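Bench notes, afternoon.
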Amino acid sequence: MYDWPEVQWANDELWTAIAGRLGASGIVAPNELWRTENADDLWGHSDLFIVETCGHLVVHELRGRAEVLGAFDHAVDGCRPGDYRSVLVCRADEEGDTLEGFRGRVAAVNQTNSHSGHGAFMTTVVPLAVNGSFFADVEITGSHRASMRAVANGSADLACIDEVSWRLGLDHESAVDNLRIIAWTDPMPAPPLVTSWANVGWRDAFNTVIAEAVAFSDLLVRESLHLYGYRPRDTADYGSIREHLIEAESSGYPVLA
């Protein structure tokens, strides 16, 4: 989920550590990460081994098809280990400090099946909606990074960016220099690592190895990924996301016009 080009080397090193430890425990793991432009090819693959996905998918498209292992801890302010939240960002020169001031403006959304970029956005503006609507229009950007750029260049006015992506933006994306945080969403379970049901018998071994690999990774790897630990989680933990989405859906999806 956080495989920006600038940190792919760090994700590769982390996976090498995980795969090596799995091999030592008798579980044969892929030697390399598989990267694909179409994430659906990965999440729905019949040979899915381990993947980090979005909590929204766990309670929708992947429901009943994958088992949650756990979540990385990124030490997000205001969140428990293994939780995260999003920041709502506008251009730095915007006047005002309240969300109400963005009624009738344009929202940038990475994709509609993202909790951090759409679901959390939707549930945050529900109380501000008028006649089931809040924004005049929405621009689907394809990624959090593209949403940052959309707001910075003026094609959109407000975006909901998961806080780990925001930190990566502070490290690597110049558009962030033209943005500021105006609000935060409620904490939710962080993007989970999942495996296919065929591998459920290895769940405990997976979690032990992943936690060890994170704990003993090189400091530069952990700093580059803003990685502080790993927390085993259950699929049921992500029911809170589904409950929030159902509540927002009953209000008519006010993120959209």
